[in-house]
């Protein structure tokens, strides 16, 4: 596998861990408060969990999609990195 | 404070008290302080939460303008701010859901 796509897969793995952590907090709090705000956050977390799992699946199973064009690989990596930064910030404010 | 910033603070309060890891404990702290001002030690005892945890929550709540401190440094008493009293309906809806 190309290094760029391997890094992108690793970042999706990081995203899954961050999403797992914040979604676990929201699920626990939903049991206490049961408010629409937290239900919305759980839905947001669940969809992004699926999105990252699908991304990893694509990186491993459809490598040929990316292998021809280094620009595509870079774009994919940058977007995974931006999502990791966004989730990192959200996780920080949620667990602190 | 205009209506818009009032509403956005309202949302921050919801997130801080219901969507964060320490949210339920923070809500219990605010409820206890609304009843009457207390110091950090007292809060830790009454809520059965560690002193350091209580200190951390009080600092966070203070940063967000939810509580304020008075008195000398050691036995500092904490109060809920006027801001929270103005948003008491919001807070009551949050606090109703937690026990103890």
From TrEMBL, chain A:
Record-linked InterPro entries: DUF8036 (IPR058349)
Transmembrane helix listed as a keyword: yes
Pfam family, one: DUF8036
Domain of life according to the entry: Archaea
Keywords: Membrane, Transmembrane, Transmembrane helix
Transmembrane segments: 6-27, 39-60, 72-95
Protein name: Uncharacterized protein
Species of the source: Salinirubrum litoreum
Lineage, top ranks: Archaea, Methanobacteriati, Methanobacteriota, Stenosarchaea group, Halobacteria
TrEMBL record, chain B:
Pfam families for the chain: HTH_5
Annotated organism of origin: Salinirubrum litoreum
SMART domains with a match to the protein in the record: HTH_ARSR
InterPro entries in alphabetical order: ArsR-like_HTH, HTH_ArsR_DNA-bd_dom, WH-like_DNA-bd_sf, WH_DNA-bd_sf
Name of the protein this chain belongs to: ArsR/SmtB family transcription factor
Residues annotated as domain HTH arsR-type: 20-99
């Amino acid at each position: 596998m190309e290094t760029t796509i391997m890094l992108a897969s690793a970042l999706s793995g990081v995203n899954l861990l961050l999403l797992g952590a914040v979604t676990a907090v929201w699920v626990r709090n939903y049991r206490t408060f049961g408010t629409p705000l937290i239900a919305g956050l759980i839905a947001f977390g669940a969809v992004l969990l699926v999105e990252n799992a699908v991304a990893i699946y694509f990186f491993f199973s459809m490598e040929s999609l990316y292998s021809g064009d280094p620009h595509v690989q870079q774009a994919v990596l940058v977007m995974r990195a931006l999502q990791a930064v966004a989730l990192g910030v959200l996780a920080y404010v949620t667990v602190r | 404070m205009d209506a818009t910033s009032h509403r956005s603070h309202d949302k921050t309060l919801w997130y801080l008290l219901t969507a964060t890891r320490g949210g339920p404990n923070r809500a219990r702290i605010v409820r206890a302080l609304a009843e009457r001002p207390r110091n950090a030690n007292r809060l830790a005892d009454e809520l059965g939460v560690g002193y350091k945890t209580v200190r951390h929550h009080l600092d966070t709540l203070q940063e967000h303008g939810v509580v304020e401190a008075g008195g000398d440094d050691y036995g500092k008493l904490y109060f809920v701010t006027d801001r929270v009293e103005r948003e008491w309906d919001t807070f009551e809806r949050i606090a109703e859901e937690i026990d103890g």
